[in-house]
Amino acid sequence: MRGEFAHRVCERGYARTVHDVREGRGPGLLHVVLVTVGTRGDVQPFVALGKRLTREGHRVTVATHDEYAPLVGGHGLGFRPMGGSFKPIVEGDLGRQWIESGDSFLRFLDLSRRVFEPLYATWARDAHDAVLDADLVLFHALTRGAVDAAEKRGVPAIGVGFAPGQPSAEHCLFFPRAPWGWLRRWLGERALEGMWTVGRAAYDEHRRSLGLTPFRSRNPWNEMLRAGTHFLYAYSPHIGHVPEEWPASYHVTGSWTLDTSEAWDPPPELVDFLASGPPPVYVGFGSMTGRSPEDLARLATDAVARAGQRAVLVTGWGGLARAPRHDGVLVMESVPHEWLFPRCSAVVHHGGAGTVAAGLAAGKPTVVTAFFGDQPYWGDRVHALGAGPAPIPRRNLDAQRLARALGEAVTDERYRRGAENVAAKLRAEDGVGKAVEAIRTVLGGRTPRA
Predict the structure, then answer these.
(1) Is it the case that residue 24 has pLDDT exceeding 70?
(2) Per-residue pLDDT tens for 301-317?
(3) Distance of alpha carbon 366 from its chain centroid, rounded?
(4) CA–centroid distance for 391 within its chain
């Protein structure tokens, strides 16, 4: 990628369009293609951004897995398919081992390689095909094939992240408790280099097939940084770090929230359950349940009973549908967070970036049961903000520990006040709006600090 990559849009005859984008006016401005893979947490924020971009007059297409076509189309956006769905991964034995790789980064890396290397060629090909008529590309970290296609065509591409992945002296995503600044940065760099080894061969081959030079460095993110590539980080600076040493091309916007509760009618059993007693706790682990979803469901219901609480247990993809029935626990497959969380006393979950943001936006004390990846980082941030007890690593999770944390979250006024304090700050944010402003900045060639 070249240093002038972000400005080639002008060279392709889009000068008037760029001016209109920068000023926020003009009909039918750009065809923007948003490319993402993963779980719902990797897709829903792109839909939120796409909706706002359509309001700006752009045509927006989301390229992702087939199971999200109704979500994308239901919000008036175009859809293009991406293979390599995560759903069969997290439902399979190898994927569940990956989820349970815990805080062993080497095991996480090894299992990531075994799970995802067969998919990278598919993602590269499908991402490439999805953006062939795009005027602007926004890409998830796993869809680097979109970057190659954009570079080949000379159109701008902007990266998207949901956690502060680029390391600094202030933080390290995969090793959040490293004690010294130099060590946090060093470990973060080594982690990114390790993650790049997963799928690198497929992406190098894809670049060669387009007549492009493969990335030279052990960390392509640093190479993109040197080339001036911009990244939008869709998390709140009131929750995650915004390191002073980050460049102006990194824009921390706030979360991209999609309120899916607008057209959602709660089922009668949920309405009746909520009305039948004090506010329950929310318990849900999304796709993060590991090799024994039944045991995790049993553990959760046992903890709720020990804590003397009621709960709504949301099963998601992870197989908790076989949760044992228990008085005071309502099992649901799916409920919009924006609808349910304000009606709860506290939330218990795996610590995904979007779920953390939703719980804190609702002002609810949060218990994080971190499995792997960025989840320990978010769990530590919740505790540091005074919005919940210390996170419980999945390897240490049992009914007694979870019951104790639940009791603290519900009864300790410090956590209620901490969560409400964060919520007040989050209510003042417009993450999607700030992302749109950052896009205008990129296309206009200006790079003020986020």
Answers:
(1) no
(2) 999 999 999 999 998 76
(3) 18
(4) 19
What's the CA gap between 432 and 442, in Å, rounded? 15
Q: Are 356 and 366 in contact (CB under 8 A)?
A: yes
Structure tokens at 263: 């057209």
pLDDT of the residue at 13: 35
Amino acid occupying residue 16: R
Q: What mean pLDDT comes out for the span 354-359?
A: 95
Residue environment code for 73-112, b if the CB has 16+ CB neighbours within 10 A, otherwise e? eebebbbbebebbbeebbeeeebbbbbbbbbebeebbbbb
| Cα distance between residue 40 and residue 23, in whole Å | 32
Q: Whole-model pTM?
A: 0.89
> How open is the CA angle 395-399-401, to the nearest 5 degrees?
70
Burial class of residue 303 (count of CB atoms within 10 Å of its CB; 0-12, 13-18, 19+): buried
Cβ-based burial of 29 (10 A; exposed 0-12, middle 13-18, buried ≥19): buried
In one-letter notation, the amino acid at residue 14 is Y
Paired with 230 in beta bridges are none
Which residue has tokens 């799928």?
A: 199
- Compute the distance between CA of residue 398 and CA of residue 404 in angstroms, rounded to an integer: 10
Task: Pull the structure tokens for residue 222.
Answer: 């640093």
Q: b/e for 369-388, b at 16 or more Cβ within 10 A? A: bbbbbbbbbbbbbbbebbbb
Contacts of 239 (CB under 8 A, 6+ apart): 356, 357, 360, 378, 381, 382, 385, 422, 426
Which among 370, 260, 270, 364 has a CA at the least distance from the CA of 312? 270
Look at domain 268-427 and name its CATH class.
Answer: alpha beta
CATH for 5-255+430-444 (3.40.50.2000, 3.40.1410.10, 3.40.1700.10, 3.40.640.10): 3.40.50.2000
297 and 267 Cβ atoms separated by less than 8 Å: no
Identify any residues that bridge with 80 across adjacent strands, giving them in sequence order.
Answer: 63
